[in-house]
From TrEMBL:
The keyword Transmembrane applies. It is found in: Cell membrane. The chain crosses the membrane at residues 55-76. GO terms for cellular component: plasma membrane. It is a multi-pass membrane protein. Keywords: Cell membrane, Membrane, Transmembrane, Transmembrane helix, Transport. This is Phosphonate ABC transporter permease protein phnE. It comes from the Bacteria. The keyword Transport applies. It comes from Rhodococcus wratislaviensis (Tsukamurella wratislaviensis).
Amino acid sequence: MVVVVAVFALSAQTAEFSLDALVDGLPNIADFVGRMFPPDLSILPTAFSLMGETIAIAVIGTVAGVLLALPLALLVPRPCSSRPGCTMLRGRRSTSPGPSRN
């Protein structure tokens, strides 16, 4: 508990936290929160369009990464990949839950 308080105090000092500034800013906080209600739903079509664009960019980046990685994977020395399926199975084993222990 002492460590948590010490880390919090150090963080507050580093961030130059001021309780006076927080209290002085309460009207601004109330104004900010007040402007959130009622929410402006007219921006949803734009937001969904931009989310779709973001997902498309992520898919393109992932495919490009895979296409760049495949030729490099073929350059791996034979001792590193002695049995083709071994690496894949080892990776699968590390992510499976394994036998249950009662």
